[in-house]
Design a protein that fits this description.
By secondary structure, the chain is an alpha+beta fold. It is built from 2 helices and 4 strands, in the order ββαββα. The protein is elongated.
Amino acid sequence: MDYIMFCDHCGMPKPIVEHIMREYFWIANQVYCNNCEKPNQIPKYLQSLSLDMQKDNHNGKRDS
């Protein structure tokens, strides 16, 4: 499943593919907007979801 984040500065939606969410969001603090190029903090709940996805993938419970 893909996700969408909205830029805190310009409001532009940024699609986040599942692979990026699972592999990087649990260790990253921010993501840059493709429109205005400003950093956006990754919310803690998305980092937590990403960490859960990482653990599930490591344990062989990957859905895709």
